[in-house]
């Protein structure tokens, strides 16, 4: 495999990764959006997913610090603003905390990460390590899961509003802005990798980076599926006793 792919061929390869590996196919995700999860399982998903949401601006700050071109930095830094906001209480992380608040989760416990599954913590740390240690090209390519997120967001929101009487559009406010943001960001990242992957080896590395990111997101849901459907959560992770201590039914 030495022949250089055309830009269109590379894009087709990347989109094929999403069709096969993105977590819209995961059983936990399918149950979440179809009403098959208990409230407790929805809470566990939101609590664990917070750690991933909170790491996104950290990940983007690492990538930003590796960019030598000011034009690239100016484009990339908007991602940090989207998640951190311009002020306290603004941005994607604050809106995710609205979700966990409305589910009755203790905000301090959510933010601390102390009740997250060990696999969630390992996955988030692995993602930060990946963008720090791999090439800038691979780090940018790992963000291309945003190519696939608008559709899963639309399906998730519609399904959760239909099936769970404990969520409202306000509860799910995080997802309102994300399709447009993800579309803008994935357009930029896709153009970047198509331009800068100039050898077949670099093109294969770009594809592998996106596969790795899809695997990481899948592994997070695997952990939820194992802990809350088939077995039991690890010591110290969120469980029904914690739900009860937050003053609500599990």
From TrEMBL:
Q: What is its EC number?
A: 1.3.3.11
Task: Name its pathway.
Answer: Cofactor biosynthesis; pyrroloquinoline quinone biosynthesis
Q: Which residues form the Thiaminase-2/PQQC domain?
A: 13-222
UniProt cross-references to InterPro entries, sorted A to Z: Haem_Oase-like_multi-hlx (IPR016084), PqqC (IPR011845), PqqC-like (IPR039068), Thiaminase-2/PQQC (IPR004305)
- Taxonomically, the superkingdom here is Bacteria
Gene3D superfamilies recorded: Heme oxygenase-like
User: Residue span of the signal peptide, if any?
Assistant: none
* Pfam families, A to Z: TENA_THI-4 (PF03070)
Keyword hit for ATP-binding: no
Q: Does the keyword DNA damage apply?
A: no
Q: What class of enzyme is it?
A: oxidoreductase
Its UniProt entry gives the catalysed reaction(s) as: 6-(2-amino-2-carboxyethyl)-7,8-dioxo-1,2,3,4,7,8-hexahydroquinoline-2,4-dicarboxylate + 3 O2 = pyrroloquinoline quinone + 2 H2O2 + 2 H2O + H(+)
Keyword annotations from UniProtKB, A to Z: Oxidoreductase, PQQ biosynthesis
What is the annotated role of this protein in its UniProt record? Ring cyclization and eight-electron oxidation of 3a-(2-amino-2-carboxyethyl)-4,5-dioxo-4,5,6,7,8,9-hexahydroquinoline-7,9-dicarboxylic-acid to PQQ.
Show the PANTHER family listed in the entry.
4-AMINOBENZOATE SYNTHASE, PQQC-LIKE PROTEIN
Indicate the family of this protein: Belongs to the PqqC family.
Name of the protein described by the UniProt record: Pyrroloquinoline-quinone synthase
Species of origin? Chelatococcus sambhunathii
């Amino acid at each position: 495999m030495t022949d250089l792919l055309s830009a269109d061929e590379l894009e087709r390869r990347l989109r094929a990764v999403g069709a096969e590996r993105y977590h819209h196919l995961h059983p936990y995700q399918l149950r979440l959006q179809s009403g098959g999860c208990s409230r407790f399982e929805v809470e566990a998903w939101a609590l664990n997913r917070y750690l991933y949401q909170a790491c996104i601006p950290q990940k983007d700050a690492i990538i930003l610090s590796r960019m030598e071109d000011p034009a690239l930095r100016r484009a990339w830094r908007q991602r940090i603003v989207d998640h951190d906001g311009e002020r306290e209480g603004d941005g994607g992380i604050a809106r995710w905390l609205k979700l966990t608040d409305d589910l009755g989760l203790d905000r301090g416990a959510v933010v601390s990460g102390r009740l997250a599954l060990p696999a969630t913590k390992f996955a988030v740390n692995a993602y930060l390590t990946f963008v720090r240690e791999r090439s800038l090209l691979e780090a940018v390519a790992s963000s291309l899961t945003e190519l696939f997120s608008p559709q899963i967001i639309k399906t998730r929101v519609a399904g959760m509003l239909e099936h769970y009487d404990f969520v409202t559009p306000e509860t799910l406010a995080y997802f309102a802005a994300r399709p447009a943001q993800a579309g803008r960001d994935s357009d930029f990242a896709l153009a970047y990798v198509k331009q800068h992957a100039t050898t077949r080896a670099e093109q294969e590395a770009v594809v592998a980076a996106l596969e790795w990111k899809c695997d990481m997101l899948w592994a997070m849901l695997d952990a939820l599926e194992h802990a809350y459907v088939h077995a039991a959560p690890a010591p110290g992770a969120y469980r029904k006793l914690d739900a009860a201590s937050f003053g609500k039914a599990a």
